[in-house]
Amino acid sequence: MLISSNHIDSHNEDLLKKHQNKLVFTASEINETEAIIQKLIDFQIAIPSWALGTGGTRFGRFAGGGEPRSLEEKIEDVGLLHKLNNASGAISLHIPWDIPTNYGAIKTLAGQHGLKFDAMNSNTFQDQASAEHTYKYGSLQNVNKAVRKQAIAHNIEVIKHGIELGSESLTVWLADGSNFPGQLNFRKAYQNTLESLEEIYDALPSNWKLFLEYKCAEPNFYSTTVADWGQSYSYVKKLGDKAQTLVDLGHHLPNANIEQIVSLLLMENKLGGFHFNDSKYGDDDLTAGALKPYQLFLIFNELVEGMDARGMNHAKDLGWMIDASHNIKDPLEDLLQSVEAIMIAYAQALSVDRKALVQAQEENDVVKAQEILQNAFRTDVRALVAEARLRSGAALNPVALYRSIQVRQNLIEERGLKTMATGL
C-alpha cells in the first residue's frame, strides 16, 4: 500500500490550527525551539526487518494478518512508516532471515522509499537448515573449533551482504552462555569468544563498525558470555577502534542505571548505538517509553550532554534502532508509537537548561538539579515533534492517519489474513 501526499495534506489541514496553537504555547515555554526542531528533523531511527511481523513468546504467537511475506514487502512497510513520520529512514536487516536475491533491485526499492540500510545483524542463536553444526552449546564460545569457524564464517557472510547494500556496521548478539554451574569454563569461553570476534573484526572494511551487544540472561540462565556492558567493553577495547558496545535497553538486571552506563561508554568513545524498547520485568521488548518514560528521558539527557561534550553529530555518529516485539499490537502502530516516544525524550533532553544544570552540579545544589531535569521532562514537547514532521512533509498524527486510511485492512487485502513474517 502507498500513502499519498494528498492523504497527508488532508490530514494535516484538519489538525493544523490546533497544532499551531499548541506550538505557540510550547515555544513560549522552551528556548531555542528552532534549533530543537531542526535536530528532530535530522534524527532518524532505524526499523529492524524482524519487527514488522507480530512478535511472540516461547508459548505462542498470534499473527494479526497482512504481515510482510518477503524482504521487498518489509521494505515497503518501513517505507509506509517513513512516509507517515519521516523519522524512520533506515532498515536494519537480519541474516539469514532477509538475504537479498538481487542487491541492485533491493537497493532501488529502498531508495524509492527514501530508505538506507542500517546495521546488519547476524544470527548464531538459531540452527540454520543448511548448517553442518549446532549452536546448542554456543557459537563463538563453543569448545568445538569447527562450530566456532562456522559462526565466524556466517558473520563474515553477513558483512559481505552489507557491503553490497551500502551498510557500514555489523551488530553481533550472542546467546552463548550456560544454564548450569560447571557446564563451561568461564575463562576459556571468554578467550574463545575473543579469538572468534578478532577474526570477524579483521574482515570488516575500513569504514565499518562492529557493535557488540550484551545481555544479562536468556536464553542461558546461569551465565552469558557477554553478560553486561563491562564485559562488552572488555571485548571491544581489545578488538580496536572499529569495535563498540551496543546498548539494548532491555538487556539489564532490574534497576540498572542505564544512563550512567551510557555516559561512561560515551566518555570512553565506546558507545556504538542503541536498541530501543521498554520493559517491566526483563527483556520484554515492549514499546519504547511505554513503562519508563522518565528513564528514557534521563538516558537521552546523558546522550545529549555526552555527544555535545565530544562534538558528535547527534544524527550520524551513533546507531539508533528499535528492537521491539509486538505481541498483541499491530506492529506498524507499535513502531510509530516507539518512534514518537524516542523523539519526545530526545526533544525533552534538548530542552534541558545545560548551563543552569552545570551550575547546580558545581554548587552541589541537589534540589535545583532535580528541578531542572524534572521541569524539562514535565514540559509537553509533542508540538515540537509534530512540527518537525510537518516541515518534513509527514503527518501531524501518524497513528491517527494510519487508522483513518485503514492501512492494516489494506495490507490484509493485499497479502492475506494468514501471512507470517520471517524471523522469530
Automatic annotation (TrEMBL):
UniProt-listed Enzyme Commission number(s): 5.3.1.-, 5.3.1.14
Enzyme class: isomerase
Keyword Metal-binding: yes
Superkingdom to which the source organism belongs: Bacteria
Residues covered by the Xylose isomerase-like TIM barrel domain: 105-285
One term of GO molecular function: L-rhamnose isomerase activity
Keywords: Isomerase, Manganese, Metal-binding
Keyword Methyltransferase listed: no
Transmembrane domains' residue ranges: none
Record's protein name: L-rhamnose isomerase/sugar isomerase
